[in-house]
Amino acid sequence: MTNPKMAATLKAIAEQGADYLYQGALGKHIVDTVNARLEKDQAKLSLTDFASYSVKTRDIVKSSYRGNDIVSFGYPASGGVLVSQSLDMLEKYDIASMPITTAEPWRLMVEAMRLAKADRIAYAGDPSFVDTPVEALLDEDYIDDRFDMIPDEGAGDSKSIKPGLPEVATPAAHEGFESKIRDTFLLSIARVMPLL
């Protein structure tokens, strides 16, 4: 799979520098595209928003699955923790030996992700504003406790699944669902090396 437009955009940023995104043609294109999709009364994006932006380096989330290193973005992007939790639970099953034409490997993946999603909803947040319990969520004993909640057969009930760290205040419960300071947005760019 290729994405020539993304490749051209990243090449232009590399060649022209940050100003191409923050104050140049790409920034203007993003502002125009976003604003064209907003209703009249909605706040608009501006090049000033880009110019006042500051890059923050975040911790990565690293885990392993059957001898493979899994590296992903940490919070505020929440997918890395969710994927790591899910794979840590699934590692206890020999999914590779299960026929993909049966429901079982898919059921197990759904159940692991259902549990990880409950944690994601409760604990994901921007570490600039809230504490995010990444180490606790990826702790081996914690993963074992979550794994024990996967039903032996059938589907779990999403409505009854609760986040699993009761001693940790969730950002949503602690801060409220809406930021009182300002909203954040995340743009992640990674250099990916081809597998040899």
TrEMBL record:
UniProt KW Acyltransferase keyword: yes
Keyword Secreted part of the UniProt annotation: no
GO molecular function: leukotriene C4 gamma-glutamyl transferase activity
Signal peptide: none
Pfam family of the protein (one): G_glu_transpept
Domain of life: Bacteria
InterPro entries for this protein: GGT_bact, GGT_lsub, Ntn_hydrolases_N
UniProt record similarity statement: Belongs to the gamma-glutamyltransferase family.
The name this protein goes by in its record: Gamma-glutamyltranspeptidase
Lineage: Bacteria, Pseudomonadati, Pseudomonadota, Gammaproteobacteria, Vibrionales
